């Protein structure tokens, strides 16, 4: 329904801040603009081009089912941190490395930990250049989100020699990336406690993929036909509801049929053993399907759904993660070619057995028998 472009911009800017801001690691940005929270559009483009290697990293992540922007931030930022730790250890040796790191990282990768780590890098004169393209080499051969996360944990564990609990630390880094992303995307107006003020935000820049009035007409026709409409999105609640309300679309969806990244995050906090619950995990889709108030109610539903139920559910999405979630649920899937790869995604959707493929969501009208 909405373009992901500003989400990708905010993801790149978050990695840029974690690595190069003096509030965090404060590394040398080399050819990039020295960090500041207000950038011109051309500078935003340059940051994204560098961080995601002309979007090659984004494409590679999408191919294996990474759908949440928070995960994209974490994977690139954490990989660069792991590279930095390896360079630090190689320069000073094991004894000095652990003598420096353990007092810093005992409480996890917090903002203060990153900032102090950056100071130590400068004090030790560690020569380190961020190579964003190296992440593509690192993830080569990975075929799933789980494999990507496990490979990164293994990389950290190898450097830290298991002296620091790996996932306990990395989860805090994920959380830090998530909150910093929210600062970039929402801006100072919507974030009450920002670590680095001055960000305008992108919420006002939302761009609909299709003409708003035509899509509202489609939603009205589907509802009038008696079809139940739902949402399962990787966007948090505010970023979902505000633009959908402004565009006149929110009224067509019952509150219980809307699941967002905020709901996923709340469920993960309540049931950490169930992580990760973001797509391609079908949790958000199943939550909307069941109108589940409690996360525990979602897991009571056996999957895949019985054929008589699954055949009556159509998931419409633009990513591999959406398709994988639909397959896990036992539902039909309609791919729309409005995601990052556009028309180029058609071949993969065909190869993966998508039931239907459309150029955009408006074309679903014919399939569902409405004008």
Description:
With 371 residues, this protein is mainly alpha-helical. The chain folds into two domains: 199 residues, no CATH class; 159 residues, Rossmann fold. 53% of the residues lie in helices and 4% in strands. The strands form two sheets. It has a three-stranded parallel beta sheet. A two-stranded parallel sheet has the order 1-2. Strand 1, helix 10 and strand 2 form a beta-alpha-beta unit. Helix 4 crosses helix 5 and helix 4 runs parallel beside helix 7. The mean pLDDT is 92.
Please give the order of strands in the largest beta sheet: 3-4-5
Gross geometry: globular
Unreliable segments of 5+ consecutive residues:
none
Q: Counting H and I runs of at least 4 residues, what is the number of helices?
A: 17
Strand content: under 5%
Could you state the order of secondary-structure elements as H and E? HHHHHHHHHEHEHHHHEHEHEH
Helix and strand content put the structural class at mainly alpha
């Amino acid at each position: 329904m909405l373009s992901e472009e500003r989400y990708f911009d905010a993801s790149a800017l978050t990695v840029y801040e974690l690595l190069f801001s003096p509030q965090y690691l404060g590394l040398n940005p080399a050819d990039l603009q020295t960090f500041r929270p207000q950038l011109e559009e051309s500078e935003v483009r340059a940051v994204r081009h560098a961080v995601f290697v002309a979007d090659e990293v984004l494409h590679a992540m999408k191919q294996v089912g990474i759908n949440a922007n928070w995960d994209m931030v974490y994977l690139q930022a954490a990989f660069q941190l792991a590279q930095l730790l390896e360079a630090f250890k190689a320069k000073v040796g094991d004894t000095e490395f652990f003598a420096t790191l353990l007092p810093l990282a005992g409480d996890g990768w917090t903002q203060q930990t990153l900032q102090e780590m950056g100071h130590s890098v400068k004090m030790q004169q560690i020569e380190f250049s961020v190579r964003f393209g190296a992440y593509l080499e690192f993830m080569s051969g990975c075929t799933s989100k789980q494999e990507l996360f496990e490979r990164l944990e293994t990389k950290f564990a190898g450097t830290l020699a298991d002296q620091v609990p790996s996932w306990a630390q990395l989860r805090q880094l994920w959380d830090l990336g998530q909150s910093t992303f929210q600062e970039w995307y929402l801006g100072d107006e919507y974030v009450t406690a920002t670590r680095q003020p001055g960000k305008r935000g992108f919420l006002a820049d939302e761009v609909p993929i299709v003409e708003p009035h035509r899509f509202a007409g489609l939603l009205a026709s589907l509802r009038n036909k008696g079809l139940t409409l739902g949402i399962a999105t990787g966007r948090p609640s505010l970023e979902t509801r505000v633009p959908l309300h402004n565009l006149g679309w929110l009224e067509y969806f019952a509150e219980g049929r809307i699941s967002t990244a905020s709901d996923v995050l709340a469920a993960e906090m309540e049931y950490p053993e169930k992580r990760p619950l973001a797509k391609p995990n079908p949790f958000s889709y199943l939550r909307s399907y069941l109108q589940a108030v409690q996360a525990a109610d979602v897991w009571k539903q056996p999957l895949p759904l019985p054929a008589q139920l699954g055949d009556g559910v159509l998931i419409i999405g633009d990513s591999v993660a959406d398709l994988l979630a639909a397959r896990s649920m036992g539902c039909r899937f309609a791919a729309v070619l409005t995601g990052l790869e556009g028309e180029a995604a058609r071949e993969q959707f065909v190869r993966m057995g998508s039931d239907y493929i459309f150029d955009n969501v408006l074309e679903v009208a014919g399939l569902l028998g409405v004008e």
